[in-house]
Please model this.
Amino acid sequence: MAKKKELLHWYDPLSPLNFLERIARVMPDKVAVIDEDKTYTWKEFFDRVNQLSNALKSLGIKKGENVACVSRNFPPHLEAHYGVPLTGGAFVSINYRLSAPEVTTIVNLSGAKVMMVDAGVFHLVNPKDLPNVKTYITIFDGRDTYGETPKGELPGVGYEEFIGKASKEYTRLDIEDENDLIAIDYTSGTTGNPKGCMYSHRSTYLHAITKIIEHSLNQYSVYLWSLPMFHCNGWCWTWATSGVGATNVCMRSPDADQMWRLIEKHGATHMAGPPIIFQRLGQYMDEHGIKEFPNKVIINNAAAPPPENMLLDMEKKGAEIRHAYGLTETYGPFTICEWQPKWDKLPLEERIDLKMRQGVPDITAGDMRVVTGEGTEDEPWEDVPWDGKTMGEILMRGNDVVQGYYKAPEENAKAFVAGWMKTGDGGVIHPDGYLEVKDRFKDLIISGGENIIGTEVENAIYEHPDVDEVVCFGKPDPKWGEVVKCLVHPKPGKNPTEEEIIKFTRDRLTHFKCPKEIEFGEIPRTSAGKVQKYILRRKEKEKMAGQEGLTRV
Model:
């Protein structure tokens, strides 16, 4: 017989699951979740979570087992963030914007035996390619709530039927170690197989606490799900809301018109996401003559770095940007531009310049350095001076850094060195100790021996009144090695010329930094909204290779 674990009067393992247990008891009748005409109180949400957990246990899900989910931001997806870990297993939330082969790769890497699938993305799942999956749980909220037609068919049991037969009885998870897995989040895998970042009960608890404090979340807050829940478990907002009893407003996709409708209808006070969705929201407001938000909205924006015009526009409209920076390996944001009271009286433009910086580690994150060198005996790391100019690689360690990649020892050895995680991002430290992320090292443009930071050029071009989006990258050049090329997406109805944009940039930047060529078109992005500069660089290399071939002939 196994020895009974001693109950310690001075210790309880940290887990965000305990937030839900508490809030269901303290605020049972408070609205927890809204999705169009559906509303659940915290007690009802708690009951549904327990039903999901008990139903999964009946399938044999326990510690060491993983449950995968590919779904938009519907209530079952939020419930699974609690119901799956309550079994002792780990939740694997997958990006629904990936291709079918990418989804297949992630599910197989995770070894999941149960998979929850939104009917709107049935076409991404082929059971023949998923030998480990024994049970499919189908989510029909898109059909039942929004009148959608399912995209294909998938054998399995409907979510409501699956949980409807299970008990609402709550059994608190007996956590042996607060560092046990609560979730596995896979990176996008643009340069190889996706890597599964291992999230723990302890760190998700601490990260959720940070969200509550750093973003002024409380029982009156209304959080609009503009950020996909699959993205680092919604940067732990999935658990933060239950910590204080805030209301979750679900939305199936962050379209600007839907965002505005739900902001206005429900009085949303908080949102999160990358700059592009708030840039689109600002444009929608301008096009419809909407000058400001109906109430103060706190926006948890994370980008490295964000377009300055987006920050300025949102703040002019009454939002408050809380600017952060992080990676999938850091549970989402690791740093925050911690605001200082002495900055309040500065002109708006100066405040935005300060807010553009990614700041300092958040209150539970840990430590951060910016270094030169490789971290080897021959070339040890050296911290850069705090001069706002000297660039180095950003290193991180602490509570907000994952334990490692799931079943990937070789990848772990590359990323985690001497107690630090290498980010691959370049940044500077300002004299006040605040970080400013400049660019990915692989995105630096080296022209005639000069390092050019693409984002610096992008921010100059963003000032042009006809530019909606821009991305700058290195184009191979036989004389200079690389020159700056930019892809510009104009604002609707605007038609800037290449000559205009180049002249506009030359009036603002040192000439060697300015673009030699401008192309107009759509900006390629990953399914998570990140710009794919590597696609643009590859296309230019292929062009040059073709030209060289013609020359040789």
Remarks:
- The longest helix spans residues 533-552.
- Residues 444-552 form a domain with the GMP Synthetase; Chain A, domain 3 fold (CATH 3.30.300.30).
